[in-house]
Amino acid sequence: MLNVVNGQLVEKEVPMLNALNEVLRDDYIKDSIAGVERWNKVIEKAGIPFRLKTPHKAFHRNIGALSGVKVSPDGRVVSEAEWNAKVDEWLPSGADRAFVASLMGRVVEPGKFANWIAPPVMGINRQPVDFEYVRFN
Question: Would you list the domain boundaries of the chain?
Answer without folding.
Answer: 2-91, 105-137
